[in-house]
Amino acid sequence: MSKYRVQGGNRLEGTVRIGGAKNACLAILPAVLLSDEPCRISNIPNISDALVSLDILEALGARIRRIDKSTVDIDPTSVSTHEVPHDLARQMRASYYFLGALLGRFGEARVALPGGCNFGVRPIDQHLKGFTALGATVPAVVTNGMIDASADCLIGNSIYFDVVSVGATINVLLAAVKARGITIIENAAKEPHVVDVANFLNSMGADVRGAGTDVIKICGVQHLHGAEYSIIPDQIEAGTYMACAVATGGDLWIENVIPKHLESISAKLIEMGAEITEADDAVRVRMNGPIHACNIKTMPHPGFPTDMQPQAAVLLALGDGTSIITENIWDNRFRYIDELRRMGVQATVDGKIAVFQGVPYLSGAPVRALDLRAGAAMMVAALAARGQTEIEDIHFIERGYENFVEKLHAIGADICRIDIPDAVARHA
Ligand code: EPZ
Fold it and tell me: Is the CB of 162 under 6 A from ligand 1?
């Protein structure tokens, strides 16, 4: 067990470089299975979920050669099984992308029900609806925690999603690119990582049009060739550092970003009183003065991203008035507020709505990361708080934030990682 120890109160200043997008990477790595030749993927973030995806590819039989810290060569031609090991699949939500990729490659797939952050029910009915529309047989009920999908031949079809789903949109893309005929996805998700996956598939010779809009058209092809592809920068990692700048009254240059992907985040931080300057592949965030209270509603892209909701909540908890957050994507994504209350946050939660009464400061306390972005919110709070904060269960945070301590330390945070041997931790 490990934890972060933070002495809060330092203004964050300087430059931080953003890594590859977790939620693009976790789909692009499985998508390599669809290729008939090796691929080189670069700008892979140094996060545990990416390592799990690479472990799954190796377990399936792919040959992986690491070129440098963020680049790998993957040869999928030696993959000989369609079953993802249960112990690996359980470790993250995105293991479900192996369903679409293996279905598209072999016409069958066997993957454990995914794990992932616990903030309410996380169904995959729309994924299975999409696979069924393409002619696959999927289980009416899940047996032994595994999902089996199979199809003699995947045939293009029209699919209208009941809800906007990033995962289902990407998973159907993966299954449809080599299906026979044309697939139309309607009510598709438009997140930057959906577009990045479509661009990767097209770089291998797929024919995907309309990604980034709510209608995506896929013309099936028989073969996909190898490709070299660099993953886009992580919109949420960037947004998290933007929130850290605002929380500490800092001045940060955040490099290796696509400013357009950050528009809804920048707009909200400007409403809170931040000064944001955009360059081609960087944004500068300066904060002098009080954080203005405001309201946030999370929405599918291009709305305010739900994955920035906990981090933004910390800023509103320090706002100069009353603020309301409405969480429209997930049923139960305010659990982290119980942890923030230990640091002095004043908030009430009623279903999808949280109301914050701004307080002048937070005080350091021992807290836990309840999931990935809840953990990021604890970090934003710890950096702003007076005194020491220790954050436990940091494995959640390290699923999605690469070199978090190093990057924060380099911009002025007083932070260290404490590694506690499990035996000691059990008796602590
Ligand atoms: C992806 O999860 C992200 N994870 C999540 O980020 C993110 O919160 C979410 O998209 C929304 O942007 C990855 O990309 C690995 P959804 P996903 O399918 O695909 C409902 C992070 O912090 N739904 O877009 O699982 C669902 O209940 C993580 O990086 C169905 O009803 O989310 C939710 O209300 C946390 N049936 C809504 O749709 C389905 O079959 C959006 O879910 C699928 C989803």
Answer: no
* Beta-bridge partners for 112: 146
Ligand 1 close to Cβ of residue 233 (< 6 A): no
CB 191 within 8 A of CB 21: no
The torsion angles phi and psi of 146, rounded to 5 degrees, stand at: -115, 150
Neighbours of 165 (CB within 10 A): 23
pTM: 0.96
Q: How many Å apart are CA 245 and CA 383, to the nearest integer?
A: 10
Q: Please tell me the distance from the alpha carbon of residue 310 to that of residue 315, in angstroms, as a whole number.
A: 9
Q: CB neighbours of 254 closer than 8 A, spacing ≥ 6?
A: 15, 16, 18, 238, 241, 242, 245, 282, 283, 284, 285
Distances from the Cα of 210 to the Cαs of 126, 185, 213, in angstroms?
A: 20, 10, 6
Q: Which residues does 232 contact at the CB level (< 8 Å), separation at least 6?
A: 20, 21, 24, 43, 192, 193, 196, 258, 261
Residue holding tokens 């279905």?
103
Angle between helical axes of 263-271 and 235-247 (0-180°, round to 10): 10
- 194-237 tens-digit pLDDT: 999 999 999 999 999 999 999 999 999 999 999 999 999 999 99
Q: pLDDT tens-digit profile of 416-425? A: 999 987 766 5
Quick one: 372 exposed, middle or buried, by C-beta within 10 A (0-12, 13-18, 19+)?
buried
Candidates 288, 236, 273, 228; CA nearest to 257 is: 236
Cα–chain-centroid distance for residue 180? 31
Beta strands in 251-372 (DSSP E): 251-255, 275-278, 282-286, 296-297, 322-326, 346-350, 353-357, 366-368
pLDDT of residue 262: 98
Q: What is the pLDDT of residues 154-170, one digit of tens each?
A: 999 999 999 999 999 99
Structure tokens at 361: 């400061």
More confident: 344 or 426: 344
165 CB near ligand 1 (under 6 Å): yes
pLDDT at 112: 86
The answer for residues whose C-beta is within 8 angstroms of residue 156's C-beta and 6 or more apart is 134, 176, 179, 180, 181, 182, 183, 218, 219, 220
Neighbours of 398 (CB within 10 A): 21
* 205 Cβ contact list (under 8 Å, min separation 6): 221, 223, 224, 225
Spacing, Cα 369 to ligand 1 middle (Å): 19
If you measure from the C-alpha of residue 124 to the centroid of ligand 1, how many angstroms do you get, rounded to a whole number? 9
- Is pLDDT of 395 > 80? yes
Q: What residues contact 426, with CB distance under 8 A and at least 6 apart?
A: none
Q: How far is the CA of 206 from the centre of ligand 1 (A)?
A: 25
Catalytic: 39? Answer: no
